[in-house]
Amino acid sequence: MLNRRDAVRRLLDDRGDMLVVAGLGQPCFDCFAAGDDPRNFYLWGAMGGAVPTGLGLALAQPDRRVMVVTGDGDALMSAGAFATVGAEAPENLAICILDNERYGETGGQVTHTARGADLALMAAAGGVRDTRTVRTEAELADAIGALRNGAGPQVAVLKVAPESEPGSLPPQDGPHLKRRFRSAALGVEDK
Ligand SMILES: Cc1ncc(C[n+]2csc(CCOP(=O)(O)OP(=O)(O)O)c2C)c(N)n1
Ligand SMILES: [Mg+2]
């Protein structure tokens, strides 16, 4: 089982001008713990929003790498979006799913990935060509390379340990997060 904090820290290390969409719950905390950045868009409570938001961003900003970092619960909720990711196939989109097989943030209730659902296969069935499930450190190194530099869309499902990590909370003011993200992404002041 992989450690989610370590994996996200490595994924976002020396990130260049990459834009990051953090799915609700613990993925927000992992991205914040890796180093807050105005180019992180934290979705906080918006369940099911990470993949569609990252897809829209990747289509709107085709010259920027867009990295979605989200959980299995969030990805299951918007599973239909994989078909649009497959159809649009933005080369700059990468999706990293931290699959702890739990709704970790709300107390660890098991999700369907603990009961046979396979998010990498679901993405592949949606037409995403480069998908993988990652269980070992060696596979993780390859996956990080693909997520950072491989032709997108990329989907990697990281099987991470179910234990929660210490709290690490990003700013909670939604309008502030939206404004600072737009300013940083577009290089203009957004009032
Ligand atoms: C529509 C909706 N239902 C339920 C919730 C409550 N909720 C907040 S975080 C979360 C669990 C998210 O699970 P996952 O995406 O797997 O992230 P994890 O915390 O396990 O890393 C839930 C159910 C919500 N915010 N929105
Ligand atoms: Mg989860």
Strand line-up of the largest beta sheet: 2-1-3-4-8-7
CATH H level: which superfamily? Thiamin diphosphate (ThDP)-binding fold, Pyr/PP domains
Overall pLDDT metric: 96
Uncertain segments: none
Strand content: 15-25%
Structural class: alpha/beta
- Strand segment tally: 8
The gross shape turns out to be: globular
Give the names of the bound compounds: thiamine diphosphate, magnesium ion
Please give a structural write-up.
The protein is an alpha/beta fold and 191 residues long. It has one domain (4-186): Thiamin diphosphate (ThDP)-binding fold, Pyr/PP domains (Rossmann fold, 3-Layer(aba) Sandwich). 39% of the residues lie in helices and 18% in strands. The protein has helices at residues 4-12, 26-33, 50-60, 72-77, 81-88, 119-125, 137-149, 174-186, and strands at 19-22, 40-42, 66-71, 93-99, 102-103, 109-110, 130-134, 154-159. Helix 7 links the parallel strand 7 (130-134) and strand 8. Helix 3 (50-60) runs parallel beside helix 5. The longest helix is centred in the C-terminal third of the chain and has 13 residues, at 137-149. The mean pLDDT is 96. Bound molecules: thiamine diphosphate and magnesium ion. Thiamine diphosphate binds at residues 23-27, 45, 47, 71-74, 98, 100, 102-106. Residues 23-27, 45, 47, 71-74, 98, 100, 102-106 line the site of thiamine diphosphate.
